[in-house]
Target: 7,8-dihydroneopterin aldolase
Amino acid sequence: MDIIFIDSFRVETLIGIYPRERIVPQPVVMDLKIGHSTATAGASDDIHDTIDYAEVVKRLRTVLAEKHFLLLEKLAEFVATMLLEDFGAQWVQVSVAKLGMMPGVARVGVVIERSA
Model:
């Protein structure tokens, strides 16, 4: 399987269970691996024959600016489902991390894998 990847994608969203986290957007960092055959696009050189990573980033920025998630797990599931259902991915790995949440810890997060 071919993999399209988007690494260290920073986006702001409302994420968390504490009162402050419900009103102040926080940055999260995502690494996305998107399983999708690139053979047709490799032959045609046409963006319509693959998953347009610019569209993925644009959609995520737009949608996540409007949503609120309590847990990173829910955010990761939301992203995975969007990639599978809306972009036609066959398989995804989604890593989502919050930055500087605890003293001495650079980031905390979750990694999930899902298939169509």
User: Anything to note?
Assistant: The chain has a mean pLDDT of 95.
